[in-house]
Amino acid sequence: PRAELARRAACKRCRDGCADRTPVLILNISFWLFVQVYDTSDGTLIQPLKGHKDTVYCVAYAKDGKRFASGSADKSVIIWTSKLEGILKYTHNDSIQCVSYNPLTHQLASCSSSDFGLWSPEQKSVSKHKAGSKITCCSWTNDGQYLALGMFNGVISIRNKNGDEKVKIERTGAASSPIWSICWNPSRDERNDTLAVADWGQRLSFYQLSGKQIGKDRMLTFDPCCVSYFTKGEYILLGGSDKQVSLFTKDGVRLGTIGEQSSWVWTCKAKPDSNYVVMGCQDGTISFYQLIFSTVHGLYKDRYAYRDNMTDVIVQHLITEQKVRIKGRELVKKIAIYKNRLAIQMPEKILIYELYSDDSSDMYYRVKEKIVKKFECNLLVVCSDHIILCQEKRLQCLSFSGVKEREWLMESLIRYIKVIGGPPGREGLLVGLKNGQILKIFVDNVFAIVLLKQSTAVRCLDMSASRNKLAVVDENDTCLVYDIHTKELLFQEPNANSVAWNTQCEDMLCFSGGGYLNIKAGNFPVHQQKLQGFVVGYNGSKIFCLHVFSMSAVEVPQSAPMYQYLERKMFKEAYQIACLGVTDADWRELAMEALEGLEFETAKKAFTRIRDLRYLELISSIEERKKHGENLNELFLADVYAYQGKFHEAAKLYKKSGHESLALDMYSDLRMFDYAKDFLRSGDPKDTKMLIKKQADWAKNINEPKAAVEMYLSAGEHMKAIEISGDHGWVDMLIEIARKLDKAEREPLSKCAFYFKKLNNPGYAAETYMKVGDLKALVSLHVETHRWEEAFALSEKHPEFKDEVYVPYAQWLAENDRFEEAQKAFHKAGRQREAVRVLEQLTHNAVVESRFNDAAYYYWMLSMQCLDIAQEQKTEMLQKFHHFQQLAEVYHVYHYIQRYTEEPFSFHLPETLFNISRFLLHSLTKETPLGISKVNTLFTLAKQSKALGAYKLARHAYDKLQGLQIPARFQKSVELGSLTIRSKPFHDSEELVPLCYRCSTNNPLLNNLGNVCINCRQPFVFSASSYEVLHLVEFYLEDGITDEEAVSLIDLEAPRLNRSGNKWQEMMSDDAQSLRLNDSAVIIEDDDPFTAKLSFEQGSSEFVPVVVNRAVLQSMSRRDVLIKRWPKPLRWQYYRSLLPDASITMCPSCFQMFHTEDYELLVLQHNCCPFCRRRIDESNQ
After folding, report:
1. Secondary structure in 3-state letters for 653-664
2. Where does the pLDDT of residue 245 fall: very low under 50, low under 70, confident under 90, or very high at 90 and above?
3. pLDDT at res. 1056
4. What angle do CA 1145, 1147, 1151 make, to 5 degrees?
5. In the predicted model, is pLDDT for residue 21 greater than 50?
6. Beta partners for 286?
7. What secondary structure, in 3-state letters, does 420-483 show?
C-alpha cells in the first residue's frame, strides 16, 4: 500500500539552514543510521551524525537555527545544536513519523504512529498525548499557538500548545485519502491562518483555523508527498508521484514545473527569504534550484501594467497613483498596454481589455475580446485594433478575433519594439534589430521603412515628440541621437541603458545608466543626478523609472537645463523648460534674469507663477510708460535695479538718464542719507533742507527721538520738534524751544503751553501764555490747575472772565462737599440754577449708589437752596422745596429699612422699625421714588408686625408681598412667614394703635389716607428718630396776626388756672366698691381756650385746621409752643404740645422734631443733627 511505501521511502524530510549562518542541508536516508549534514553552496558532506540505532525518518530545524531535531524508527528523538552536538534524547512507544519546532520558541512537537509529544527546554519531561490514528505529518501556525496533525485516517486534528484538541476536521472520503502533508501559511499579512492539506486522494485543500474549508478541493493528477510554502506565503511547492515539483499560487493555481526528477519527490522546501528551492527524491537525489521571477509589464505614457502574484495584473496610474487589480486564474505570460487597450497573454489565450470611458483618469477595464489560442512569442504589443506578436525575427499582426492579417520577416533578431502612435488601425511601430537596423512599420502596410542603420545592436530607442529626432541605446551602453531626416548623428553620450524623450519638450531627453539619471537639453552638457533603475518615460517634469519590480514617477526639477538656457540669455526657451517643472527659487531666478534683460513678457509670466505682486506692479508700470512713448531702457533698468536692491547701480543709471531727483528720493526712502548727501554734494540748499527733514522723520520712526528733534529744529520744523519733546516728557527741551521762539509764532508757543500743562508744569505754561498774551487760555490754565487765587486776581483785573472763574470754582467746591461755599460761588457768578443742578446730580448719584442717608441730606440741601431762590421764582421753587423736603424725609426713613434688610444685624428697636415702615408706606401712596423698594418695606413691616403682635397687619403685608417680585434671598422667609401667620389671630395688638391728640381717635395701623387722622384729618407730627406720633397739634394764626405779634403774645404768658384733678375716682354699686385710675398726667381744664379750638364738625371729609386768635395766643405758655421759623416767602409753623411734661426738642436748622432724650443721644453719637447734619457748636441762626 501507499502508506507502507511512504514509510519505507528513502528520503522522508529535508530542510535547509537558517539565513544567519553557513547554509547547510540536513538529510536522512532510511538505510543509513546517520543524520547527514551537507553544505548547500557546493553539496559537500560536512559531517554524519551518529546517535540513532535505526532508520532516521525526519529532521527539523528551529526557527533561529540554533537547534535541530531528528526522529528515527528506533522510537527516539535527538536534539542537536548548531555545532552538530547532541544535547538531549527522549523516546516514544512507536517509530517517529515527523518532528516540528514551534516558530517562536524551542518547543518541539514529535509525532509517532500512536501518539505525539511536546517538549520545551523549560520542561523536565515530555508531555505525551494519544492519537486516534497514525500521525503522518504536523505543522505549527505562524504565531506558535496551534499545532495541526495530519492523520492516516484522513482526519486533521488542531491542538493548542498544551496538546488539547481544539478543532477536528473530518473530510469526505477520508478513509481512502490519508493526509500525507500539511503546512500552515507563514505569512503574517493574511487575515486568517490558512492550512494547506495534500492527501493521497490526489487533492489539495485549504482550511481556516476554525476548521472551515476555503474554496473547493483542487484536484491533482498525482499522489502528493510534500507541500510547503515560501517564507512570505505567496507560493506553494508541491511534489509527489509525478516525479517533479510544481509551483502553485497561495490559492492553489498551478503556475508551472520547477524541476523534473527520475523518481518520486518525497520532500521540497524553499530557502527562507529567498527564491531557492531544494527537493529530495526516492532514489536519494537532492536537487537545489534557483527560481527567477521575471518582470512582466507594459507601459504607455502614464499607465503602467504589471504582473502580481503570477496570475493577477495591476494597472497603475503613475500620476494619480490610482491602482486597479484584474484578477486571473492562470499564469500571466505577457502584458501590453496602449491608450485605452490592455492585452494579457495566458498559456492558452489572450485577453484584450478596454476602458469603460475616454476619461484620462478612468481606471475601470472590461473584456473586449478573447483570443482562445496558444501563442509563442518573445514580445507582445497591442494597438487600437490589432495584436502584434514578435517571435525572434518574425512580426505578426493579428486582429482581435485572432486572424493573422500581416507578417513581417526581419533580417536579424528583433531586440526592441514600441508603438509610436497614429490613427486607429494605422499605428506606427518603431523596431530595433540586433544588427543595428532601425525600422518604422505601419500596421496597415506590409513594407517596413528603414530609418537608419548603425553598426551596433539596438537595446532601446525612442522618437521625439515632433518625430524629427531618434535616440538609440546600443549594446555598448552608448546613447546616440540622430536627425531622422538627414540621418546625421547629432551627439552621443556614454553609460546609458535606457532612453526617453520628453513628451512635452522637443529638445529634452533623459537616459539612465550606472546609477545616474542624465538629462540633456539641446546641445548643452548633460546634467546628472543619482537614480536607481531604468528610465522608461519622460513626461514634463516626471520621469517614469522601473526599479526591480516597481514602477515610480520621479519628480525631477528641470533647473539645470533652464539655467543652461539662461546663461545664453535664451529667456523664452528657458521659460518653456521651467514650465515642465522647476522650484519657486528657479522661477524667481528666471524672472529676475528676464527682467534685467528687459524681456518683460517672460518676466511677467515668471513672476505670475510665484505670485510676486510687487514686481508685477513694476512691470505693469513700465509697460504703461512704454505705451505713453517712454523708451529709456536705462531708466527702466534703473527701476529694476532699485527693486532688486542694487541701489548704487540704480543711482548711476538715474543720473546717466538725467533723473537725479529719482536717485535722491530712492536714498531718502531707504534712509540712506549719507549716500544721499554724497550724491548731492554741492546741490540746491532746498534739497538739503528737504533731505534733513526726511532724515528727521526717519530718526523719529526708528525710535531716535532726540536726534529727530535736533534735525527738525535745524530744518525749521518747530511743531514736529515740540510734539516729539512733549510726547517724551522733555520739559527742558520744551523750555529751550519756547524761549527761543518769537512771540509772533503763536501756534508753536501754544503747543508748548499745552505740553507744559500736560506734563504738570503750570508755571512754564503760564509764562508761555503771558508771552503770547492769551489771557483766556491763562484763566483756563489757573482754573484747570485749581490755582484759584491767581484766577480771582486775574478776574478782578479783567471782569469779562468772571464766569470762567467762579462757575468752575463753585463746581469744584460742590464736588468737594463744600456746598455752602459752592452756593456762594454760584450766586457770585449769578448761576443759581447751576447750584441746584449740581446738587441734583450728587443726589441722584447717592440714590443710585444706595447711599440713602446722603441722598436725604442732599435733598434737604436742595430744598433749602430752592427756598433761597424762591424770592425770585416763588411758585416753581416753592413746589420744588416741598417736593425735596418730602424726598429728604422719605430717603432718611428708607435708610433704616435698607440697613435692616441688607445688613446682618439690626441697630433699631422693633417698635422703631415698625413705625418707620408704616410711615414709609403711608408716604408712598402716589409714586415710589427711585431706589426705594416696596418689597423691602413690606418685608420689614411683616417681620416687625408679627414680632410685636400686629398679626392682621402682618398678614396684609405678606399678602401684598405675594403680588410683588421677591428677591431669591427673601423667598423662603416670605413663604414661611405667609404660612405661619395663618396660625395667628386675625387682629392687631391694641398697644400699637396710634392715637390722634386732637380728637383722641384710635387710628388703624394701616391708614388709606396716609399720615393723617381718619377722623379729624389732622396731619400727624412724627419724631424724626423713633417715628412715634408726637403729642403736638399744629395751629394757624387768625388773619391779621403777624408772626412777630404772635410770638410776642405767646411770650406774655398770661396767668391761667390749671388745676390738677384727683387721679382716682370712686364708684359705688349694690355689691361692690371700685377705684378707677385716670392715666392722664395733666388734665387741661375745659376753660383752656386752645382746647375749645380743637373741636371740629363730625363726619366732614375736609380738614379743618385749628385757627387761634390773639386771646388764645396770649393764654398759651411759651414752653408749650414749638415754632418752625421758616425764611420767607414761607410762613412760620406753630405747634402746641398737649403733654407739656413730655419734653420735645426741635432742630433749629431743619425743624425736625425729636423726643428730647432721643435727640440728645443721637447728638452724642454723631455730634450733629441726624437729619440736616448741623453741628452742635454752630449757631442757631
Report:
1. HHHHCCCHHHHH
2. very high
3. 53
4. 105
5. no
6. 280
7. CCCCCCCCEEEEEECCCEEEEEECCCCCCEEEEECCCCEEEEEECCCCCEEEEEECCCCEEEEE
222 Cβ contact partners less than 8 Å away, ≥ 6 residues apart: 202, 240, 241, 242
CB 378 within 8 A of CB 414: yes
Among 151-160, 553-562, 599-608, 758-767, the range scoring the smallest mean pLDDT is 758-767
Q: What is the pLDDT of residues 1116-1139, one digit of tens each?
A: 888 889 999 988 888 899 999 988
Phi-psi region of 674 (alpha: psi -120 to 50; beta: other; left: phi over 0): alpha
734 has a pLDDT exceeding 50 = yes
The more confident residue out of 747 and 913 is 913
Q: CB under 8 Å to 224, separation ≥6 — which residues? A: 180, 181, 198, 199, 200, 202, 204, 238, 239, 240, 241
Q: Give the C-alpha separation, 757 to 751, whole Å.
A: 10
Q: Can you tell me the distance from the alpha carbon of 981 to that of 979, in angstroms, rounded to the nearest whole number?
A: 6
Answer yes or no: are the C-beta atoms of 214 and 227 closer than 8 Å. Answer: no
Which of 357, 337, 333, 360 is CA-nearest to residue 347? 333
CA distances from residue 422 to 338, 341, 385, 537, 956 in whole angstroms, order as listed: 11, 14, 12, 18, 109
How many whole angstroms separate alpha carbon 563 and alpha carbon 573? 10
Q: Where are the beta strands (DSSP E) in 1054-1152?
A: 1064-1068, 1073-1077, 1106-1108, 1121-1124, 1133-1137, 1144-1146
The least confident of 162-166, 735-739, 1100-1104 is: 735-739
Q: What distance in Å separates the CA atoms of residue 788 and residue 762, rounded to the nearest whole number?
A: 13
In which band, very low, low, confident or very high, does the pLDDT at 682 lie, cut at 50, 70 and 90? very low
Which cell goes with 294? Answer: 521575471
How does DSSP classify residue 580?
H
Question: From start to end of 633-767, where are the E strands?
Answer: none
**Residue 252 — left, alpha, or beta (φ > 0 → left; ψ -120 to 50 → alpha)?**
left
Secondary structure in 3-state letters for 351-382:
EEEEECCCCCCCCCEEEEEEECCCCCCCEEEE
pLDDT of residue 8: 32
Backbone angles phi, psi at 387, to 5 degrees: -115, 130
Give which of 801, 800, 806, 795 is closest to 829, Cα–Cα.
806
pLDDT digits (tens, 9 = 90+) for 142-154: 999 999 999 999 9
502 near 496, Cβ under 8 Å? no
Nearest to 729 by CA among 697, 706, 702: 706
- Cα 857–Cα 858–Cα 861 angle in degrees, nearest 5: 90
- 474 C-beta neighbours (distance < 10 Å), count: 21
In the prediction, which pLDDT does 38 show?
86
Q: What does 801-839 look like in DSSP terms, one character per residue?
A: GHHHHHHHHHHHHHHTT-HHHHHHHHHHTT-HHHHHHHH
**CB neighbour list of residue 567: distance below 8 Å, 6 or more residues apart:** none
| pLDDT at 2 (0 to 100) | 34
- The pLDDT of 578-595, averaged and rounded, is 83
Average pLDDT over the chain reads 81
Give the contacts of 1011 (CB within 8 A, at least 6 positions apart).
Answer: 919, 922, 923, 1019, 1020, 1022
Angle, alpha carbons 1166-1168-1172 (nearest 5°): 120
- Classified as helix, coil or strand, 518 is strand
pTM above 0.70, yes or no: no
Cα distance between residue 365 and residue 831, in whole Å: 101
Residue 1012 has pLDDT above 80, yes or no: yes
The answer to whether residues 399 and 351 touch, using CB atoms and an 8 Å cutoff, is: no
Ranked by mean pLDDT, the top range of 353-357, 646-650, 651-655 is 353-357
Please give the Cα distance from 463 to 506 (Å, whole number).
10
* pLDDT value, residue 620: 80
Do 731 and 756 meet the contact criterion of CB atoms below 8 Å apart?
yes
Q: Which of 997, 1010, 1007 is nearest to 1135 (CA)?
A: 997
Look at residue 955 and give its three-state secondary structure.
helix
Query: For strand 203-208 and strand 516-521, is the pairing parallel, antiparallel, or unpaired?
Result: unpaired
